[in-house]
Model the fold of this input.
Amino acid sequence: MLDVAKSPPAAMALRPSEYTAALIQVLRRRPECVRGAKVLEMGCGSGVVLAALGAMGAASLSGIDIEGEAVASGRSLLRELGHDAELFHGDMWQPVAGCRFDLIVANLPHFPMEHIEVAGRLPTWSSGGADGREFLDPFIEGLADHFTAKARAVLTHNAFVDIERSRRLAARHGLGLTILASVLVHIAAEKLALMTPSVLLAEEGKSIHRYGPHVFADFHIVEISPLGTQD
Ligand SMILES: C[S@@+](CC[C@H](N)C(=O)[O-])C[C@H]1O[C@@H](n2cnc3c(N)ncnc32)[C@H](O)[C@@H]1O
Done:
């Protein structure tokens, strides 16, 4: 059995976050979207989201990650759990050009900060560049080309990286955005210190909440699907 506490540092760097937990929770509440679906996870990391989707009866599991260690670790987890998955080592949509999926999930790096290692994670884990949107934008822009007719994407979305901008971007590609759930997450002082100052200034008191030394932020689990197919 995989024991993360006794595993090498790569497994610790890939430990699932509160964002991943919330994503899995929302997906577990929507079994009808998962059962029999051809699934892709963008930025599959540890592979745990794919493992959850495999356990829920997805028809096929594919994943992409820019980190070779993540791909190796995800393959090993999924094999150990008896899931037949295809994991690609690559950048964003490039490994699945021309492929379409029924369900695309993602917990992308989209914290507004430069590419710096934080809390024992790889620099590619959280950083979404100065405005946090370096991966979010191309992800949303590529969805329509990778959707089957009745597909949807379910992703984590920090409230402080402008959800209305994501909505407008999705609409330009004929897609609608719906918030499925909202969660409050603690932001460690070490991570907050790295946040792009203009984002912190603009969002404190809105989506970022400070109580003395303790800081929390809102994030959402959103669904993006072809306009007119929203529940
Ligand atoms: C916040 S982590 C989420 C991982 C996964 N959901 C989990 O809980 O293990 C983001 C993942 O995106 C990957 N990533 C970063 N940039 C990427 C890119 N350009 N293309 C594909 N994956 C990328 C990172 O390596 C990391 O594994």
Observations:
- Confidence is low (pLDDT under 50) at residues 1-8.
- Strands lie at 38-42, 60-65, 85-89, 101-106, 147-158, 175-186, 208-211, 214-226.
